[in-house]
Write a structure and sequence with these properties.
By secondary structure, this protein is an all-alpha fold.
Length: about 260
Amino acid sequence: MMGRVGRALVLHEFLERTRDRWVLVISVLFALLASAVSLYGQSADAEFAKLTGPSLVTLVSLFIPLVAMVLSHDAIVGERERNTLGLLLSLPVSRLEVVVAKFVGRALALGVAVVAGLGMVALVSDGAGAGSLAKLAGPTLLLGLSFLSIGMLISACTRRQVAAASAVVITWFALVFFFDLGLLALLVVSDGAISQQVIANLVIANPAGLYRIVMMQAFAGPDVLGDLGMTASLPGPIVVAGIWAAWLLLPSIVSGAILSKARMS
């Protein structure tokens, strides 16, 4: 149960993050691009699941991780650089509660960005399109929260906000862009020595890849890889839930452990 100080910290983090200009700019850009994709799909007389859905998945997998990491990169290192970390930890609040409060406050701000973006798409979509957006909402929040947790870990591991900002940009590029390209290059270079199943397992180990796979199944059906001529099998919902839980919890737990050491130093 979170105490009074923890709840106040959640509110403080939420209000501060919703006023972050970079978060606002990226969120507005995402909403505008997503709305443009939806309007184009309707003008082309295409079914939402065939054109607009995959296009929105691509946009979400690019913008939501970036919003999440911008939100979280200064969570710990910002306090350290302002010399307020010791003061914060001297309050009647546990170290774990500080990490949880910062995560929850910034997660609420992320939720506002996601709802605003998808809500704008729903406003410009027809009934079928708005219904299909329900498939996007849950996985999109999980994707954002996973990258928020990663950003918190980066913030706890760095000593300067500039270093944290650089690290989250590198991590974003690595997980969102270069990870899949690297696996594709590995598959080509190995000339079949590495099985498609191994590559598929590596893809779903990455939260961005897992999100794309989950949404491909949602829009194209559970046999989507077979339809593409691939022999790999995808994990069931229990395994998928476990991967999401690991990305949500493990970085935050490590952040709490690092913060506990910072208090004693």
